[in-house]
């Protein structure tokens, strides 16, 4: 079942991406010779009009084959890719990642609108040596306000408390046995690593969340704004992470995952329900768009970069140059895939492997 869900998610991401290239090519008058889901030997194939639609054995990608999309095949016909001016070719390339990006936004919008599970502010545990336990807070208490500001959800409580500085106090309103109490708690400061591996100081109450969950929903337009904010936040976070990896401030082995890691994450998400799966699709779709726009040969971003160079030079790259760049790009991507897969094996299955060889 987990494998089917994994293939379903991968299929959605690939089809949406390749459909972006497909529909933009059609709009620009470029003939699409083939639309393939997967690589390698074909399982199914059907030709309709000028395009062959196929499903191949290896489901880890897909492609759209355009007429005259490399200089060795280009014959100068008006319906070929290289017959189009750079701005039209840009849209054909860019529309794949763009549709992935839009898909992510739409899924985030949908999740906020239909509702998603979130933790309440009920106390599930206390940490020794921190303010909450010293102030007399008990397991089962429910925090309903911080400094007279109403709160209902654990995420909001975390944001407020973590923004506090050392040696400050907060006035908590709590519910205990249906009775409201006021308790003053000292905040302790602690340095932690954030998602980008940077040290930052956060305030701590000294409590853990309980397993009490409620469904949180938002209005139609509010959900769109929240989805937009979520998509933009994920985008900025990803580009910051990429920059920190390039500059050696963030470990790539701990920050990047491939198909094997995605399969493991999918298995975890599937056990949490449909909303978790939809959230995973949204995150992966936005991430795929961002990755594809990196200026690396054979990726969409690399093709866009060469279009910019062509625009400046007023002519296309030569056949030999194109071939060399493609080979370099292919080698880089394959090497990266091998490295990421190796890291995924160690990260997700290292303990099991070590037990086998003990």
Task: Sum this structure up briefly.
α7 runs antiparallel to α8. The chain has helices spanning 2-27, 86-114, 131-135, 154-162, 220-246, 252-255, 259-272, 274-292, 300-313, 319-356; strands at residues 32-48, 51-66, 116-119, 123-126, 142-146, 149-150, 169-176, 179-186, 188-193, 199-204, 207-209, 213-216. The chain has 2 domains: 2-115 and 254-352, no CATH class; 117-216, PDZ domain (Pdz3 Domain), CATH 2.30.42.
Across the major sheet, the strand order is 6-5-7-8
Our Rg estimate from Cα atoms comes to 26 Å
Tell me the total number of β-strands. Answer: 12
Helix content: 40-55%
What can you see in these coordinates?
The protein has 2 domains: 2-115 and 254-352, no CATH class; 117-216, PDZ domain (Pdz3 Domain), CATH 2.30.42.10. Helices cover 52% and strands 23% of the residues. It contains 10 helices and 12 strands. The strands form 5 sheets. A 4-stranded antiparallel β-sheet has the order 6-5-7-8. A two-stranded antiparallel sheet has the order 1-2. The protein has a two-stranded antiparallel sheet with strand order 3-12. The mean pLDDT is 85.
């Amino acid at each position: 079942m987990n494998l089917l869900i994994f293939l379903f998610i991968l299929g959605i991401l690939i089809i949406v991406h390749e459909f972006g290239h497909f529909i933009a090519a059609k709009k620009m008058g470029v003939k699409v010779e083939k639309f393939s889901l997967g690589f390698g030997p074909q399982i199914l194939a059907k030709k309709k009009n000028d395009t062959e639609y196929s499903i191949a054995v290896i489901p880890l990608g897909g492609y759209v084959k355009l007429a005259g999309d490399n200089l060795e095949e280009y014959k100068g016909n008006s319906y070929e890719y290289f017959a189009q001016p750079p701005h039209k070719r840009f849209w054909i390339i860019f529309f794949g990642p763009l549709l992935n990006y839009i898909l992510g936004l739409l899924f985030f919008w949908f999740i906020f609108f239909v509702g998603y599970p979130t933790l309440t502010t009920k106390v599930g545990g206390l940490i020794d040596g921190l303010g909450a336990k010293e102030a007399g807070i008990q397991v089962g208490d429910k925090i309903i306000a911080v400094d007279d500001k109403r709160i209902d959800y654990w995420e909001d409580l975390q944001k407020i408390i973590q923004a506090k500085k050392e040696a400050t106090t907060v006035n908590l309103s709590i519910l205990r046995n249906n009775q409201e109490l006021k308790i003053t708690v000292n905040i302790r400061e602690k340095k932690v690593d954030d998602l980008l591996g940077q040290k930052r100081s956060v305030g701590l109450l000294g409590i853990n969340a309980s397993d009490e969950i409620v469904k949180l929903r938002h209005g139609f337009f509010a959900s769109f704004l929240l989805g937009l904010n979520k998509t933009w936040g994920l985008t900025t976070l990803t580009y910051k992470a990429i920059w920190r990896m390039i500059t050696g401030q963030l470990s790539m082995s701990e920050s990047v995952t491939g198909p094997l890691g995605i399969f493991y994450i999918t298995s975890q998400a599937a056990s949490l329900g449909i909303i978790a799966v939809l959230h995973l699709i949204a995150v992966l779709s936005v991430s795929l768009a961002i990755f594809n726009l990196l200026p690396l040969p054979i990726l969409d971003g690399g093709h866009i970069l060469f279009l910019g160079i062509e625009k400046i030079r007023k002519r296309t790259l030569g056949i030999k140059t194109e071939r060399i760049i493609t080979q370099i790009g292919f080698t880089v991507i394959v090497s990266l895939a091998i490295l990421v897969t190796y890291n995924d094996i160690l990260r997700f299955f290292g303990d099991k492997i070590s037990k086998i060889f003990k």
